[in-house]
Amino acid sequence: MSCVYVAFCLLLSALAVPSKAAQTEVKAHTDKALTAPADSARAAKKKQKGKLLLEKEQNIGEVVVTGERRETSVNSVSNRISETIIDRSMGKSLASILEHVSGVSSIQTGTSVAKPVINGMYGNRILIVNNGARQTGQQWGLDHAPEIDQNSSGSIEVVKGAESVRYGSEALGGIIVMEQKTLPYRQAKAEGHVNTLYGSNGQRYSVVAQAEGTMPFDRRLAWRLQGTYANSGDRKTAHYLLNNTGFREHDLAATFGYKFDNLRVEGYYSMYNMKTGVMLSAQLGSEDLLKERIALGRPIVIDPFTRSIGYPFHRVVHHTAIGKVYLDAGRYGNFFWQTAFQSDDRKENRIRRMNHSDIPAVSMHLTSFQNLLKWNLSYGRWDTEAGGSYLHIRNKNQEGTGVVPLIPNYTEYDLGAYAIQKYRLGAWNAEAGIRFDNQETRAAGYDYTGRRYGGHHTFSNLSYDLGANYQPSERWKFTSNLGLAWRAPHVYELYSNGNELGSGMFVMGDSAMHSEQSTKWITSANYRGRLVSVRLDAYLQWINGYIYDEPTHQYITVISGSYPLFKYKQTDAFFRGVDLDVRVKPVEHLEYHLLSAFIWANERKTDAYLPYIPSARIDHDLTWEGIRLGGISLWAQLKHRFVAKQRHFNPASDLIPFTPPSYSLFGFELGAEWNVAKGSHLRLLLAADNLFNKEYKEYTNRSRYYAHDMGRDVRCTVGWYF
């Protein structure tokens, strides 16, 4: 865990992490905290060699710190997940990886669809930034996982504050910043890795390969290629199979860049291709059968294991193309321009009469175009940042499917501008920012009764952010952030009128809803001692117009079957909670790590509890690492998770009047790493989740009415790094 520790400390010091000498140069004035160690190292080297200052000037010349300024601020309450953890989590979802951060959990739909939850916020209240671009494929509710291959990320930053100033709308609950490693400019030797995985649950296997280097004719031209393939059959609970829950995933990404003096130009392309089977338990033909299934809480008919994916299933193909330009203009500051295009094709195939299942019941094509221009300048103790953004989203439903789309065709425009002023004085860092956004949405379509519906909506919002960081000593750090954020209701919340395939729910929107307005205050206290490190995050969040879907306890029967009816509504809400992160290192190679989170969320007027709020949980592990046996480096980890029964529960907001009982899950990791040749090594990992095959249900799984959660999963990973 030492890499996580170092990365996190550098994050709170606010600016760039030094990387390889071949990476992008950043002038020393961008981070005094980083130049100090560099100066010390040079001084020590000079003393050792007995050289004079004149000799240093003649032989060394200008000294630069290599690296890249992070997207997150020193005044943000944030955590960093390192590349090592991402690699060791191969075979897990993005939401599961993010659970390495206190206060982060997931909301699921079945076995393979999971979205992150930060401090009780989920869905489009969590903004995902992938390689600098807003992820725009999540416009259709909770029924779809983020269209991102997490294996292509060099690190992941989780920001818990409501920071709409820097990132725009939808950042009420937090921001997930998925960062690429800096391209290896001027590096002569190509590097990369190949990881293979086998997982027992679903008999799944996958391969992840990545390579990077520079062009032999010009080391200023750098490249990176990455690909992922995954294949899974039916997943299983502790005691039975979940039929038609396999998936197929094909991903690829390519990055190219050119760096000349103070100018850097980069291009990026990725494709995410996922086919996911939909569990049959929630697809029933009548209201009586559906009620019977909900009362039973599990499938009745279970077929033998198969790798094939039958009807119904989801299929999504997501393309992303990004262009970036960085310019260091010296005393005029740093300029950054980015343009991004995304295309998302989503199809849902269901069991249809007359052998028409091959015709998608839902076929939606979403495109987005976004531009970002940013400028920053450091002068003395001050740092100024300003920027503007433009976003255009268009969704078009394919005609001729024979099924009324869940949402109408729509276009969305968003224009924003912001400014941030920072100040540094000794142990203090502070910043203040303001932003204005204007969003316009136009929607038009026909519902299942043939009625034309839609409308024109305009949302204008002003947001602000105040943050400060104080480090009185090497052991103590305090960070506080107060932010006003907003989120316009999405089209699926305004105009949904159909059934969600994965969750088995019929959802109706409300076109009269207004924007969510959120004020969040979060404060973090961090102590790092020789034996014990403790971090405590506490937050208060008031939201005007909080949007969620609530069951009507009615059922709607359409051609495909019978579904419980959910309607979107708005209310004023109050969220508060604490996140705890404790590390104890009694001896050199042994560490105990505990994560815990407690959340309370109510309607402000009625004091009624809100749905889908994660219950209290404790994750802790005992890690033994840094041990060498000959030429082999070893590590081992024992894990335990306890999730309490959600007692802060409103029966009116659920299909059933009770929540699942508490549960405990155990797991382990065993790893070894050794050199096989000069410049290359092998890594072997054996891990298990739900080791004792516990049968349980998670309250935030939207498919818990029909089935239990995952049973035992044993993963074996073999990686070659060169």
Describe, in plain words, how this protein is organized in 3D.
This protein has 722 residues and is mostly beta strands. The protein folds into 2 domains: 4-65, no CATH class; 71-721, Beta Barrel (Maltoporin, Chain A). The chain contains 8 helices and 36 strands. The protein has a 22-stranded antiparallel β-barrel. Strands 4-9-10-7-8 form a 5-stranded mixed beta sheet. A hairpin with a 4-residue loop joins β11 (191-199) and β12 (204-215). The longest helix is centred in the first third of the chain and has 18 residues, at 32-49. Mean pLDDT is 86; it is low at 1-68.
Set out the fold topology.
Blueprint: H1 2-12, E1 17-18, E2 25-26, H2 32-49, H3 53-59, E3 65-68, E4 78-81, H4 83-88, H5 94-98, E5 104-109, E6 113-118, E7 126-130, E8 133-134, E9 155-159, H6 164-167, E10 174-179, E11 191-199, E12 204-215, E13 218-232, E14 235-236, E15 241-242, E16 247-260, E17 263-277, H7 287-296, E18 313-328, E19 334-349, E20 362-379, E21 382-397, E22 409-425, E23 428-446, E24 452-470, E25 476-487, H8 491-495, E26 497-500, E27 505-508, E28 516-528, E29 532-558, E30 561-587, E31 590-603, E32 617-629, E33 632-643, E34 663-677, E35 680-689, E36 713-721
Parallel strand pairs: 7-10, 27-30
Antiparallel strand pairs: 1-3, 2-3, 4-9, 5-6, 7-8, 9-10, 11-12, 11-36, 12-13, 13-16, 14-15, 16-17, 17-18, 18-19, 19-20, 20-21, 21-22, 22-23, 23-24, 24-25, 25-28, 26-27, 28-29, 29-30, 30-31, 31-32, 32-33, 33-34, 34-35, 35-36
Average per-residue pLDDT, rounded, comes to 86
Using only CA atoms, what is the Rg? Answer: 26 Å
**Count the strands?**
36
The count of helical stretches stands at 8
Describe the main β-sheet briefly.
22 strands, antiparallel, barrel
Give the count of structural domains: 2
CATH architecture of the largest domain: Beta Barrel
Q: What helical percentage do the residues reach?
A: under 10%
CATH-defined superfamily of the largest domain: TonB-dependent receptor, beta-barrel domain
Q: Structural class of the secondary structure composition?
A: mainly beta
Instruction: Using the coordinates shown, work out and report the CATH topology of the largest domain.
Output: Maltoporin, Chain A
Name the shape in a single word.
globular
Separation of termini? 22 Å
Which ranges are low-confidence, i.e. pLDDT below 50, for 5 or more consecutive residues?
Answer: 1-68
Percent in strands: over 45%
CATH class of the largest domain: Mainly Beta
